[in-house]
Design a protein that fits this description.
The chain is 42% helix and 13% strand. Helix 3 links the parallel strand 2 and strand 3.
């Protein structure tokens, strides 16, 4: 008797989500009061404010809830009251430093500490738990000297963070395609910095897109270093586009690994989508469903 292999291939998975998106496109538009997606919820998903930047904040909040998302990443203070009123979170907000001018610039340490004091206190007032920071460009600074420069300012900053029950997260970015010269461009460098700061109030924002470009070996790297990771970003590679079959990352097993680490008590943060959606809300919906393992 003939048998059928019921296992879904990667391509089958994307086709199923593509069919769902197509059905949604011809279905009547959902009302603002539409029921949220029914998700397993093993992964706490958010998206960056930039993905819905054209929407007024009240409409954006309604959209987040319909998509089953917990809140916004990288969202300005002007939108915080609306998030709180809607029972949503700001999963990552400003801390100190920028991609080009970051903590490896000792001439700006006094400024950065003042920024940390102000921004951590503001985040804590709203109940937000994570603030972002950056290492900065190399600009002629060796990786060893850059790390040595980051340690003292972070050792002071984590005292402020501990007083407010907030965690400072340094983002891992690629220096190959998007951010030439950025110093914190390898997991090993970021992990060593975490070890030297030696505080649970300083961890990494592991951007899966960026680290796929720089290193690959995503799942093993996450598993081996989860104690130093507090937050994740997603995007398709190449191009920081949709999480679809035109890119090389396959997100379901990555999310399975993160979900397992969560269930083991090794991770309690968010996974935030940060890509340029080709088809607006449907692209975000597809990503949410794909990552809901």
């Amino acid at each position: 008797m003939a048998t059928t292999d019921r296992r879904l291939t990667r391509r089958d998975t994307f086709r199923l989500f593509g069919a769902a998106a197509a059905a949604a496109a011809i279905a009547p538009a959902a009302s603002p009061a539409a029921e949220p997606l029914k998700l397993k919820g093993r992964i706490k998903q958010c998206c960056t404010r930039g993905m819905l930047r054209k929407m007024p904040i009240d409409e954006a909040c309604a959209t987040l809830k319909e998509l089953g998302l917990h809140g916004f990443d990288l969202v300005g203070k002007e939108d915080w009251p609306a998030l709180r009123q809607n029972g949503l979170v700001a999963s990552m907000v400003a801390g100190a430093g920028s991609i080009k001018k970051g903590l490896n610039d000792t001439s700006l340490h006094a400024t950065y500490l003042e920024d940390f004091r102000k921004n951590i206190a503001a985040a804590a007032e709203f109940g937000w738990k994570r603030v972002i920071t950056m290492a900065g460009d190399r600009a002629g600074i060796s990786d060893a000297d850059g790390m040595a420069a980051c340690v003292p300012v972070l050792k002071e900053a984590v005292k402020i963070a501990a007083d407010h029950d907030v965690t400072i997260c340094m983002e891992l970015l690629n220096s190959k395609v998007n951010h030439a010269g950025y110093m914190c461009d390898k997991t090993a460098w970021g992990v060593e910095l975490c070890k030297r700061v030696d505080s649970p109030r300083f961890k990494l924002l592991y951007d899966i897109y960026h680290m796929q470009i720089m290193e690959g070996d995503i799942i093993r790297t996450i598993q081996d270093n989860i104690q130093f990771i507090a937050h994740f970003h997603t995007a398709g590679n190449p191009g920081r586009k949709d999480l679809d079959e035109e890119q090389e990352l396959y997100y379901p097993p990555i999310m399975q690994a993160i979900a397992k680490l969560t269930e083991e008590g090794k991770f309690n943060g968010y996974v935030a989508h940060e890509f340029s959606p080709k088809n607006g809300i449907e692209s975000i919906r597809k990503a949410v469903l794909l990552c809901d393992v």
